[in-house]
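subagent[fold] <- orchestrator: predict structure for attached chain, return tokens only, no commentary.
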Amino acid sequence: MKAIQLQHPGGLDHLRLVELPSPGAPKAGEIQVRVHASSLNYHDLGVVTGHARAEDGRIPMADGAGVVTAVGPDVTEFAVGDNVVSCFFPHWQAGRAVPSTFQTVPGDGVDGFARERVNMPVQAFTAAPKGYSHEEAATLTTAGLTAWRALVVDGRIQAGDTVLVLGTGGVSIFALQMAKSMGARVIATTSSDAKQARLLALGADQVVNYKDQPEWGDVVLAATGGRGVDIVVEVGGPGTLPQSIRACAAGGHIALIGVLTGFAGSIPTVEMMRKQQTLRGLIVGSREHQQDMVRALENFRWRPVIDSSYPLEQMAEAFAHQKTAKHFGKICLRY
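subagent[fold] -> orchestrator:
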């Protein structure tokens, strides 16, 4: 089978297309999946560029979607022919005991889905939403579930809430689509007129250009009559967090997801304390969260936004496109 391996010291020029033996019959409690798609996340970019210091020869990609081709003894949850999608934390089934490392994450601590076939335990997958293509399903494992947890699990979104999303990456677009489906008002930020038009077409109620208005937190406050937003999907990190705190309502929730602007910085703690906001870091979600999300997605009329799709052999080109930050939605691999 075809696979991509990352050679030390990492970097897009150290991704190697290789031929590996196909896995044999799945063991008890396992399923075999013919993987047809993956999607790119900034976590994956950190792995392939060497920042995550993955083992030499690591097969990258945390997201995988495909078809069950064989089931091991005692497997009853899935059958041959079922469409499935992987779990980011395959050992976090449910509950509050959250993982704090990436040791079990496919494509980082263990081999991922940049290969044509895998044998894994049943618990490493959920059903894909009915009617989704493999590429659409592959966008859910990381970006889709992160947005779901930020809004539903941690943010406890209600109809009538106002949500702020930053930029046009996968998590932000998912959050926009989900929030609108749940009856919320959505304010989005971007630096591009073209992307502004697409955000409005997707249902954003207002778009703020953060380059033209660097104090965009005050703009969001004004747009909400001085109240602020109920939930901020904060993907920027230290460079955007002060503005997110400014934009967030008293008693509001900030879901801290990304580190796009760095790994450390100053925080206006007095303003956050005065407004009694909650700031909660999160990394994707559990298998139970994903099962809940899949059920919900089957009742929504929209589909994930896919910016572009590349064959597996062009993984380096796909990541080079991601690094430009010109994409809108998700970038996928197909194979």
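orchestrator: received. Logging for downstream: The domain at 2-139+304-334 is CATH 3.90.180.10 (Quinone Oxidoreductase; Chain A, domain 1). The longest strand covers residues 30-39.
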